[in-house]
Specification:
By secondary structure, the chain is α+β, with helices and mostly antiparallel strands. The strands form 3 sheets. It has a 5-stranded antiparallel β-sheet, sandwiched between helices. Strands 6-8-9 form a 3-stranded antiparallel β-sheet, with helices on one face. α4 runs antiparallel to α5 and α8 packs antiparallel against α9.
Amino acid sequence: MLAKAAEVSGVELRGSVLVRDGSHAIYRLGDDVVARIGQPGSIDHAARELRISQWLNDSGIPTVEADTSLVQPIVIADRPVTWWRLIPDHRPSSPRELGATLRTLHALPPPNEFVIPSYDPFAGLERRIVTAPLIDQDDRAWLLEHYARLRGKYDGLPNIPTPSVIHGDAWQGNVVVPPSGIPTVLDLDKVSLGWREWDLIQLAVDYTDFSRVSDEEYQSFVEAYGGYDVTAWNGFRVLGDIQELRWVGFAAARSEASRAAAAQAKHRIACLRGQVPPPWRWDAL
């Protein structure tokens, strides 16, 4: 598919390296170009990512840039392919850099030129649980009950006073820092309107449930965001539990193709079921 997309777009295909194979397949090409291959039928999502990139950059938030010399998105076998400029030699953001970037993003008024959707933290999650291979029926039944409990709790949260522009998958690897030292936003497919707290949840549960973030690092995140500590919010545990269930669903959906993912799915389910005490250790997939 990548070869066909490169042929159609006139991109030199040499030295291609698979960077990640998740919700998108991401390849780095030899000419400092990054190819993103979306899921079948997601052409509208790809087109929105391109518009969001331009809008955020125009709004003063440094963001990965599309290669404007190419016509895009293109569609190969019902899957959209987009081309992006490589951000060289970057590192993940620190908690402080992530907090400062999210504070700026959340203060941004929504665009007038196009509509961005409301964020749904449950999108696709139930289907992942139902169709995930290699999960025994007891675990699957528990996960579906847990999913239903969390939906009820989420629906019981008060209405959002003013929905914020959120990234939707805000972790340190999606705000990167190149040699310029300027944090830059990646992975725009989940940019939406929603609870600003959703963007704060990933680092917060890294701190509370996984101990991957020190006290000092977490406080620097809170200070950079303006002093707001999401762990003190009464909806924190609801959003935190939803995020962790999403991470379980991701591993479960990949369990048939990867022995590591199957082992992770089993371990993560045991953690959620209280069979493994925190702080937890979940390996990246």
